[in-house]
Amino acid sequence: MTVAATALGLRNVACMDHSPLAIAACRRNHEGAAIQGDICNPEDLAKLFVVMQGNSMGLMCGFPCPPFSVMGDQKAFRDSRSEVFIAALNAAFLYNSAYVILECTPTTGQYREVQDPLGSFAQAMNFESRQQILRLSDVWPCQRTRWWCILVPASAAHHISILPSLPKFPHLQTSGDIMPSWPLWSRSEEDALSWTQEETDFYASTLILENHELRLSGTRPTLLHSLGHHPFACPCGRRHQGLSHERLLRDGVALSMLPSTFSANHYRHLHPCEAGFLCSLPADFIFNLTQPRSDLPLIGQIAAPLQTIWALCHALRPLQLHGLGSWQINFDSPNEVLLSYINTNLEVCKQLWPTCEHRHQQEVHFEEDDTSFSLLVEPMTSVQHFLHAHQQLLGWAHRTTLYRDGVPQLPNALLRGGAYQIVVSRPKHTRPAPTDLISVKLHDGVASYEFHGPAGTRLSTILETLGFRYKPGIEFCNLFRSFRCGDALWQNEQGEVRGVGIDVPTATGVHHFEAYEELRQILQVLPNSTREAIQVVPHHIVQLILKRPASFASKLLINEHNGPFTWLVFPLLFQSHWSLLILDFELSEFWYYDGLRDFHLDSVMQVISLITETFNLASSRLHQSNPVEQHGGDHCAAILLRNFGIHFDLWQPMTDAALRQWATSLQAQEELRGCGQTEQSQTHAWLCKFLTMKGVPEADAPARATLALKKLGQAPVAKAISQANPWAALKQLANSQQRPFQWIQHDELMNHIQKRAKEHHGAAPRSSNKPSKKRAEPAPPVSPSALVLAPKAFVDERDQELAQLPIDKVTPESNGIILGTVEQAAHFLKGQKTISINSLAMLTTTEIPSAMHGKLTVQHMVWPALLADSAAPILVRGSCVQLGDHAVKKVLGPAPSPASFVPELFKLQVYQDQWPLAWSDFTLRPLKALVQHFDCLQFCDGSTCNNASSCKRFHPAVEEEIDMVILDAFGWKWSDATGATANSKKAASFGIMVRVPPSAAPALLAISATDGLYTEMRDPLSKGPSTKYAVIWIKGRYWLIGAETAFTSPILQLGSASLIITPIAAIKSRAPQPIIGSLQTLQRLQFPQGEDPLQVRDPWASALPAAPTASAQPAASKLEEISQQLHTSVAEQVREQLRSFSDSCMDTDDSRLSQMEASISELQAQSSQFAGWFNEAGERTQSLSKQVASQESQLSDLTVKMTRADQRTEQLRNTVGKLRQDFQSDLEASMARQLESMESLLSKRHRTSD
Fold this sequence. Notes:
InterPro entries: C5_MeTfrase, Papain-like_cys_pep_sf, SAM-dependent_MTases_sf. This protein is of the alpha/beta class.
């Protein structure tokens, strides 16, 4: 997607991916921030917001395919990877994106789980969506079918009714249409891509290999994420083991195999450049060629640039037509945009990729103006090689471009057999000679010189003729006016000679070839022995080795500099700032010179590491020095040249003021190449003047402006000063940094206020009542003899403690720390060489001035010591000078880890009809109204309350170092009574998500259902309800309940809610009958056999379908019969017991009476139980009868409808028969009329005899 945006001229602000391989590829090929992270993680999402700086931009996202793909498990949102889709919509909502483009597998659009959130997002953002399935094979010979969705503002959506399918390009149907032959890669790259024996066995046992060999006559199948790693774990870390044979046989294998160029009967995988090109990536896309297999899985995950360009054109076109954006490309013709990208990509592939013809020497024909010549070039010779040689012949001021068939050739393109055209652009001051002879008059401040010669003579020849080449005292700096030693003079000139050699670029906008050529001009005037020992590396080589893989950079360095030399000089340009790096091969030491100390030192270390590996240096040391510090200004290039001369003893150092004056004097004319104010110098000059007006001393303003440009960046500062209120914009920019930048110091501001008050009012402002704190005077320096080094303060490279050494006991083998003064350190700094083979350093009691540093490493620091007389600890601000071959370092303590906790996520919902205060006031500031109304949302630090237990405000826990209750608030939503999104004035409820400390969660749960506020704890990760608490919402307005006694009040208070109690009916309670029986009998009476105790007296039983039984009438008669039998049996048993009782004696044992009473009670209970059973059976039977009657009614209705249908069918049959008869009769009548007509015609024909 980033490739497509760049092709359309859009600026890529940032890209984010969870894979480190993808981030590495982005950093190699694109500008803008490349963030490795998860968009589902709020912290990573915040990083994107910081990069965007609050601007509204477009968002493009290709979310994971496996949850929706037919090749995956199709778990949809049960797969955690699908959360990226929701997170992308959330990010677009939070960032207020101008448009959104989504891409995934073709089946994604069929999921309701995808369409519903899309609809909600479009409604919330007032967007409209357009969806389409795009097939790459329509415009490019590769299968890649994807679902695309673009979302644009509804106000502009009427300009695009649908997202159309891709057009069909018939001239691009096979792989041979875009690649006439497979490229020829290096042996190391092809070996890395060749099949291992394990892969050969794996594929041979699973597949028919002949069916998977790629041919240029066909279309490439879809490239998947498993490309190149089927039997192995994926290098991106998403799959930790190889794919099984069963899965490959089930789902198929997207295998791409090619025959090896170097080994017969061997196969290899696609090269990442080939695979990317087949997916429509640019042919010059930079992959990790040291490990080409590692980038193959990325090809299976990308969104094809051609599809992305098509979607982007249709997304930006309505915005362009509606005036919501301006771009240089006209999106009215997406087909032309596609063809332009395709043609450019094919041409780049043709120029860059090596083929079989590059194996051998080739004859190349060159045409220049009216001349032509032929060369026999070596294999793999690039255009850059030819341009470099051709430029050496013409001089550095000329610019050469090579064309083939009218197409300009890229510098890294490979030369092929055929004809090339050479176009040379001359220097701007070169003009046709008006005369054959010219006169040049020069003056060097002492004497005058005059030269007469032919027009077109180079200035270097004139100077050498006049004897300026080795004249003592002449510095190699600028020449008069805008001419340089390599320039040719075509007319009479006169001027002052300020130096012989080069024209110093004093601004930052210098062409990168100029510094290289200017240093080479210096070498031309040096003795032969010195000149042959020094080689200058062109700056563009440094840029290439930083952007290209290590193998490419090493090859480039060796090819460019393979002769015998002692010194290798690198002029470096980082962020428009010049610095100098020099390598001494004999000592394996690097010398780094820069006017700004430690500026882009990480990039310098990267260059040093690459050079060390390229030339196999066993060990190397870095000496960092800045003989002249740069405090503002734009004379960094002059400092580079001055440092070059200092290093090789060509001249003595200059002070910063003298160097500024020298650099200013070099700008003789505005047309001087490399001089004049650039954008950064203009910004710097504006800042100096503006800060002086705001109170910064004039002497400190240049340094403050330089520091601001370094900390904040030139582009943001330039944007800020272009605003209507630049001071407010500059302060906002400074506060946006992690550590705010301070434009004006406090004492500077106070002095400025007093100065302005005195100017306007004639008197200084009144001092405040508070006594001002006077700044303490700096303490005098302590004598080193009065100090003792603190124990365990410094260690060597092996972390061994170093002891203090007397300065008079230092030897070439000393190992320790010396305490001394700046004057004592000056002796060692003048020598500019280390004095010990071990770890030795000197600590000074004051800081060493930068002008004294020299070639030794000097570091300013605060170091601990003890007073010798009292052993009192003291901190000394001074410098550390490395005097040994091994570095000495200060012991640093462990960094403290900040306390942290995981906040709780709550959903707050407020309803208008229950909110006790004015709803109109609530809609103005809802969150503030909640905090003011509920005490538990207000923070209390304990200073305003005497007892924390009785205070209703929030008191944080001991481990919670916070000063507020609501840590974060998001997801604001106003809803109407139906739950739909509404305006705040028409809303019936308000919802918001908040994060609070864990200790505040219980209080927030307790106030739920109070004054219209309802709280619900949510899971911060799964975006669902919390697993700790659950809120159950009950539908309904009333409940039927039972109570043993009547309520004392008709209104029951439940918190802040009230319930009205309405009695329905009083149930008369009966005294329980005493039942005496065995335990088994009691259990049987309580829970009859076959009945579920949980279903006894089930209040929901009436809603269940009745059990099928016989008709209700037999059941009722059966019930009466059983009841009658029970009554008769009970009556007989009673009479029998009474009869036996009357016959018995009065003193009969009471046990018999008790037994009889128990039997009677048991019979009564059984009778009651049976009655309940049969009543229930009757009710179920009646219900069944009703259902049967309903079904009979429906059946009769269905019978009537079928009868009507039969009647209609019969009518239709009769109608069709009648129509058939009418048609037949009409047809017969028509035929009869035609026969009669024919007979009449035949009868009128003249008959002739035979």
